[in-house]
Amino acid sequence: MKIVVVGSGTAGSNFALFMRKLDRKAEITVIGKEETMQYSPCALPHVISGTIEKPEDVIVFPNEFYEKQKIQLMLGTEVKSIDRERKVVITDKGEVPYDKLVLAVGSKAFVPPIKGVENEGVFTLKSLDDVRRIKAYIAERKPKKAVVIGAGLIGLEGAEAFAKLGMEVLVVELMDRLMPTMLDKDTAKLVQAEMEKHGVSFRFGVGVSEIIGSPVKAVKIGDEEVPAELVLVATGVRANVDLAKAAGLDVHWGIVVNEYLQTSDPDIYAIGDCAEVIDAVTGQRTLSQLGTSAVRMAKIAAEHIAGKDVSFRPVFNTAITELFGLEIGTFGITEERAKKEGIEIAVGKFKGSTKPEYYPGGKPITVKVIFRKSDRKLIGAQIVGGERVWGRIMTLSALAQKDATVEDVVYLETAYAPPISPTIDPITVAAEMALRRFR
Predict the structure, then answer these.
(1) 8 Å CB contact between 102 and 271
(2) Which Gene3D superfamilies does UniProt cross-reference here (predicted)?
């Protein structure tokens, strides 16, 4: 069997490795625009700050590792089109035949049509090349003031990196809060307050209308000119769908796939940032542009091609980050979005400590849990705290994936030790607060 993968990022690289484990004889070819296989885009802000020393350090495995697995690499290669009738991929280096084709073409940074966005000193943060350009610019220009456009995960992590380098940082966001698709106003304010302590300032409900100077020297926000010597455009990403659309595959926000990650052509799969899957809460189509989702999709697609009876489950989009030592975890629906979707909910919220009150060193933690009133099921959570948010958001996400009710969380068996956690865990207390709203 000839299996061709278009895309050498997280989804494509992991698919190739999973597929090789399942089928030692298949001819596996990975075609990618970049010169390297998988690296971690989530690590890129930490390269800028210097926490990770070199851009190359985020490459997971060298190209030779894949070649030793008898995976043929066609890197630095662009796919021009797909001929579905002949079952060939047409590249700038010739044609590649396939029996099964996997599209792992990822996403691209969305750059809004801001005047001056092409000027020197204006960057996106999506690739190794982006990081190299940013680091070179900082080394040469030594900017003191940075403006970040967009307050999503990448924007905030970029803002943290610049602040750690000693820059004065302003984050500009069109919505009324940071992380607007992941956090409600109350939890977003906790993150904002912590970032402001470290010198990052915010402007909400406005946009940048112009970037002035090349190299950049200011940005225009409304009628106001704000000094800026570096600008990061972090206004989200868009799925790469052009190749699939040109091939006649069903495309919406992303490439439409079924539960087996097959496109409208059963011999063509789509995985990772480019694939449009199902939201676990609303049942609507959505994108799941997370590294963890990319790996799960890669595994499911490989197993399905190998003949296993598996399917990709609807997503809660569980995510976590850390900003200036503050951990932020989230999954599922927010309170605001639930109201927009017409979902009646019960919300529980608890502010406490990560350790018993009598034990020194406890850090503040806020847990917010969201349950659907119609069936009492857990459909979302947001946790902000100084430590151990990861374990708690993972626990709640796992419960939601198993259709847990409010009672399941209230009476959950948890662990206790004074240096680690209180006897009654904050997640169960938050659920108890929600349970009162059912009575």
Answers:
(1) yes
(2) FAD/NAD(P)-binding domain
Averaged pLDDT for residues 289-315: 97
Summary count for the chain: helices (H), strands (E): 12, 26
Return the DSSP state at 314: P
- pTM exceeds 0.90, yes or no: yes
Q: Which long-range contacts (CB under 8 A, 24 or more apart) does 94-100 make?
A: 96/4, 96/29, 96/31, 97/2, 97/4, 98/2, 98/3, 98/4, 98/267, 99/1, 99/2, 99/3, 99/267, 100/1, 100/2, 100/3, 100/4, 100/267, 100/268, 100/269, 100/305
Q: By the 8 A CB rule, do 347 and 369 touch?
A: yes
The answer to whether the CB of 301 falls within 8 A of the CB of 271 is yes
User: Which DSSP letter does residue 34 get?
Assistant: S
pLDDT band at 439 (very low <50, low <70, confident <90, very high): confident
Residues, the chain: 439
**pLDDT score of 137 more than 90:** yes
Q: Do 309 and 290 contact (CB within 8 A), yes or no?
A: no
CB 194 within 8 A of CB 326: yes
Q: How many Cα atoms within 13 Å fall on the side-chain side of residue 111? A: 17
Read off the pLDDT of each residue in 409-422 and give the average, rounded to a whole number: 96
Those residues whose C-beta lies under 8 Å from the C-beta of residue 139, and which sit 6 or more positions away, are: none
> Residues 252-277: pLDDT tens digits?
999 999 999 999 999 999 999 999 99
What contacts 136, CB < 8 A, 6 or more positions away? none
Helix ranges restricted to H, 238-324: 242-246, 291-305
Q: For the sheet with 122-123, list strands across it.
A: 122-123, 230-233, 145-149, 168-173, 200-204
Residues of the chain with CATH 3.50.50.60: 2-41+57-106+240-306, 109-236
DSSP letter at 74 equals E
CATH (residue range 325-436): 3.30.390.30
Q: Quick one: 2-41+57-106+240-306 is in which CATH superfamily?
A: FAD/NAD(P)-binding domain (3.50.50.60)
Q: From CA 256, how far away is CA 134, in angstroms rounded?
A: 34
- What is the rounded distance in angstroms from the CA atom of residue 84 to the CA atom of residue 98? 10
What's the token pair of residue 359?
Answer: 């034990």
Name the phi and psi angles at 138, rounded to 5: -65, -40
Q: For residue 278, what are the CA distances in angstroms to 196, 260, 275, 313, 400?
A: 36, 12, 10, 8, 15
CATH number of the domain located at residue range(s) 109-236 in this protein: 3.50.50.60
* C-alpha dihedral sign at 406, 411, 412, 415: positive
Contact 413, 398 (CB under 8 A): no
